[in-house]
Model the fold of this input.
Amino acid sequence: MARPPAFAVAGCFAMSLAGAPDAGAQGAYPVPTVTLVTHSSPGGGSDVFLRTLAKHLAPKMGVSFAIENVTGGSGARAVARVAQAPADGSVLYATTPTYIQTTLLSKPQYGYDGLMPVVTIFYDPEVLYTRAQSPHRTLGDAIGFAKKNLGKARWGAANPASLERVAMERLNRVTQAKAIVVSYEGGRDQMLNVLNGTLDLGIGEIQEMVAQIDAQQVRLLAVLTADRLPGMPALPTAKEQGIDVVVTKFRGLAGPKNLPPRVLKAWSDGIQAVLADPAYRKEYEREGLVPAFKAHEESAAFTASFAGDVARSLRELGVIK
Done:
């Protein structure tokens, strides 16, 4: 398998997730090992998503998985790594809105349209949170503090091209809070700064903070979905609290262009099987993930439509023309 050039893997971390493939599944997929690439640092949302998925998917697809963290460039390096990989199903990229936004904002050599959407798997709700010891009991408290202390409140977000960063900027604009929004390459660093009080407010996915939620180290203030989450009915939406900010985050996989039909079908079948697996369902429901299966063709149409929506949002914010 071809390796990425050195510049593309600065800070890269790979871990083999060798499954115990079903004997009958061996040989069904064209390569024995698949590298799943993410722009997220270890412990970040996409990293956690891939590791959990790989654990349950390996025996169903009859392959071993390796997770590769190609950080930097707001996802551009990770996309370039995959775009230049062999079109044989051996290397795929964990898609989120970040790779679309990075393309629109910085116009890298390899953008989201340089990859082939393989499958869309989940919608991943974004939540706003603070540390458990924070005086902010509600989202309104956090917004009120920021407005009374203009330029002093500090809110965390992911990298500058991420959906999380755009959501926080939108929250700032809608509420006129004028908080300082601080970017982080991964969710782990942001979490640490929320917990130590450096940040008043953070944004992320539930899967990134399950351990902190269980340990009662964080307080969830709002979910940025149109409706409350079935698994967390007590958590109000931002919109319920008078703040009209709703965002949609998806998780899926894409690969180099011209992947063969055999590979696309294997992923379609494998993802449908793993989503129906009770053991995996227990994990993804606990992490707040909402199944949103779309095979290749539907996923490609969804990606194009989503990119159009993102472009309109960025123009409304004055980020692009």
